[in-house]
Specification:
- By secondary structure, this protein is mainly alpha-helical.
- The protein contains eleven helices and four strands; from the N terminus they run αααααααββαββααα.
- A two-stranded antiparallel ribbon has the order 1-2.
- Strand 3 and strand 4 form a beta hairpin.
Length: 285
């Protein structure tokens, strides 16, 4: 099986998994996201661990899972359930990530490792880069989100746009790309691929506006712009991380793609900006 075939099968399998989780329930989707958080953190901490730098891998993974889970519960659980615990439970869950972040330097005191500042910095960065970003996608699946046949429309459209943009940019750029887009960071990315991805993403946004009429064409275009700008930046940033570590792929768990970081790099950086747009949109709706 060549790389293109493996990449296609893996991409379709991931897309199918996300759509099935969206159809089943919000809890199923949260469970799938939790797997991405755990595997992504494990992959990241393995990549950056050296003789000189040793992030708090196991605490980071546990903290990231708790962090994401707390926001998933707040976003998905009906308010009446949280009221059962009074306001204190919701308040604690909201600020739990902050507590976990400040536990990292406390634990570092007892580890007796060299470069404690770097250890804490890498542990913190992993938590901000992966579970925080994925948690931003949980808010658009709550019950105030428009639905398309029972599926959270905003999140469904987001993933469709990300897939179409990434896939078309990769396919066209691999076949016809000649002019390098950002050679210093990502030698294989070309202007031809980027332009093709933008064109396909815009056409996809127009199609989504006809398919999911609860969300306006303007909103779809704004979401598309966020994905194009920050999704591309996320791809480049992940390439920058790999080049700094002199590796080709972040892992091998996904055939044709590499690792979790390779597949979700566009999501990690664009998700927080999607969250901001979603909240602003709700405030003016």
């Amino acid at each position: 099986m060549n790389n293109f075939t493996a990449r296609t099968i893996t991409g379709l399998s991931l897309a199918f998994t996300v759509i099935i989780c969206l159809i089943l329930s919000r809890w199923a989707l949260a469970g799938a996201f939790l797997v991405v958080v755990v595997l992504g953190l494990n992959e990241f901490y393995n990549l950056v661990t050296t003789e000189q730098v040793k992030p708090q891998k196991y605490f980071g993974i546990i903290a990231g899972a708790i962090w994401f889970s707390s926001y998933a519960i707040i976003s998905i659980t009906p308010n009446s359930f949280l009221n059962f615990f009074h306001s204190g439970a919701g308040f604690l869950m909201l600020f739990l990530p902050v507590i976990l972040l400040f536990l990292v330097p406390v634990f570092e005191i007892f580890r007796k490792q060299s470069n404690p500042v770097m250890n804490v910095a890498y542990t913190w960065f992993g938590l901000l880069y992966i579970p925080f970003s994925i948690a931003c996608l949980i808010v658009p699946v709550n019950k105030i989100s428009p639905e398309f046949h029972g599926i959270p429309a905003f999140l469904l459209g987001y993933f469709i746009l990300v897939w179409f943009y990434d896939t078309s940019a990769y396919l066209y750029g691999s076949r016809f790309g000649k002019h390098k887009f950002f050679e210093r960071v990502s030698p294989k990315k070309t202007w031809e691929g980027i332009i093709a991805g933008i064109a396909v993403a815009i056409l996809t946004a127009i199609g989504l506006s006809y398919l999911i009429t609860e969300i306006s064409l303007t909103d779809w275009f704004i979401l598309t712009g966020i994905i194009i700008i920050f999704g591309t930046a996320g791809d480049l940033f992940e390439s920058l991380i790999k080049r700094s570590l002199n590796i080709k792929d972040s892992g091998s768990i996904l055939p044709g793609h590499g690792g979790i970081l390779d597949r979700f790099d566009s999501v990690f950086l664009s998700a927080p900006f999607v969250f901001i747009f979603y909240i602003v949109r709700l405030s003016f709706s």
